Amino acid sequence: MLFGYKPSKVEVDSVMASVQQNNSGVLLEEFLKLMSAKKAAQLYHSEKRQIFTAFDMQYKGFLTLEDFKRAFNSVAPKLPERMIVEAFREVDQDSDGHVSFKEFESAMNYGQNEISQLHFF
Questions:
Q1: Which residues are bridge partners to 54 per DSSP?
Q2: How far is Cα 42 from Cα 85, in angstroms, rounded to an integer?
């Protein structure tokens, strides 16, 4: 365990293979770069969770079309309702009428560079 985080063996092996090692282990600079990237990824995940929770005003654990309308109307009041409905349908990947955090997170990550879970820089 390292600072409250226990990496998997696959994660450790991948990290160790991707950093330059000297005879006594990993260079301090490499370690700091790795940990900085890991912390940034954790903060971004936390921010997405906070945004989702802010939209889920009734704490249901999912977002409805009404939640989407309320959220979009607060940030883009002139956006046509049909565009909000289209956005909701796009994010609701399984078409169950609810947007789970997983679906929301996937939509928030859309278009960004895919960051491997095993490589942090």
A1: none
A2: 30
Give the closest residue to 103 by CA, choosing from 64, 71, 54: 64
SS3 99: strand
Q: Mean pLDDT throughout 95-103?
A: 94
Question: In Å, how far are 26, 29, 48, 78, 107 from 68, measured between CA atoms?
Answer: 47, 44, 15, 14, 13
CA distance 96 to 103: 11
HEC string for 21-61? EECCEECHHHHHHHHHHHHHHHHHHHHHHHHHHHHCCCCCC
Return the C-alpha torsion angle 57, 114, 4, 2, nearest 10: -170
Question: Highest mean pLDDT: which of 57-61, 62-66, 113-117?
Answer: 62-66
